[in-house]
Design goal:
This protein is of the alpha/beta class. It is 20% helix and 31% strand. A seven-stranded mixed beta sheet has the order 6-5-4-3-2-1-13. It has a six-stranded mixed beta sheet with strand order 7-8-9-10-11-12, with helices on one face. Strand 11, helix 6 and strand 12 form a beta-alpha-beta unit.
């Protein structure tokens, strides 16, 4: 059975994935409305769209860096009663109580804190389960691999090939990257959100290339590219060097919506 999936780019590493009965929100720093101050930020901000309140909403945060975590996510608990948060355990989840969005009594109901290299499952209201597997990020927090009835989804967080200067620390980070990559090597991934970081210059493509070569990825989305859309386009146009690069979907602007068939 084919499934239609809608993916919305919410800026930087933030994405909304809308399935038939479930919404998945990843590393969302989107705002309710855009202001000049937000628009001037080096990492991009999208606008949080309205969601179907009847659908389950799972909100994932890979780590606490401010370009991946925003306290704005707690507002969603007020608007969407079916919201459940799955957060890396370095995220300050007490913000939920301080904001008044989640009571201390409801904390364990609404929030799941996860560390690296765990596997857990959640039953879905629409039937079936969502298996959640975390990988250890070589920068901070975790990456998420999700297996749902509709397909498999991967969000890399800050698990990347961080080759800045080629020094000993870079090599240590690279070893950790490949250790974690081996966990998903050979797997089928229907939708993957992968880093393309122009701050790394010529090394900014290495992480995405490694993911595309290691796993069987159907649709890949770039992230963490700091508003440099030309960098994404250049990567895709270089598919003659690595054919898998053609699987990367060109994002042109914030809040761009993509409809996919799984």
């Amino acid at each position: 059975m084919n499934h239609t999936v809608q993916v919305t780019y919410l800026g930087h590493s933030g994405f909304l994935v809308e399935l038939d009965s479930v919404c998945l929100l990843f590393d969302c720093i989107a705002a309710q409305s855009m202001t000049p101050a937000l628009a001037a930020q080096p990492c991009s901000f999208g606008i949080m769209p309205r969601l179907d309140p009847h659908k389950e909403l799972f909100i994932f945060v890979s780590h606490a860096h401010q370009d991946h975590y925003s306290p704005r996510i707690w507002d969603l608990a007020r608007r969407y009663p079916k919201a459940l948060y799955i957060l890396s355990d370095d995220v300050p989840a007490d913000d939920a109580i301080r904001s008044g969005a989640v009571s201390a009594e409801a904390f364990s109901e609404k929030i799941r804190l996860v560390g690296p290299n765990i596997v857990t499952s959640l039953d879905l209201e629409g039937g079936g389960t969502m298996q959640i597997e975390t990988l250890f990020s070589n920068d901070a927090g975790v990456a998420f691999y999700l297996n749902l009835p509709q397909g498999a989804i991967f969000h890399s967080g800050d698990l990347n090939r961080w080759i800045w200067d080629g020094d000993e620390e870079d090599m240590r980070l690279d070893r950790t990257f490949y250790e974690q990559l081996s966990i998903i090597r050979g797997r089928r991934i229907d939708i993957a959100f992968l880093p393309l970081d122009p701050r790394l210059k010529e090394n900014g493509w290495l992480g995405a290339d490694a993911y595309l070569k290691a796993a069987d990825i159907r649709y890949a989305f770039p992230m963490h590219f700091w508003k440099q859309y030309d960098y994404v386009r250049t990567y895709i146009e270089s598919a003659d060097a690595l054919p898998q690069r053609a699987r990367m979907i060109p994002i042109r602007h914030e809040n761009e919506v993509f409809t996919l068939e799984l």
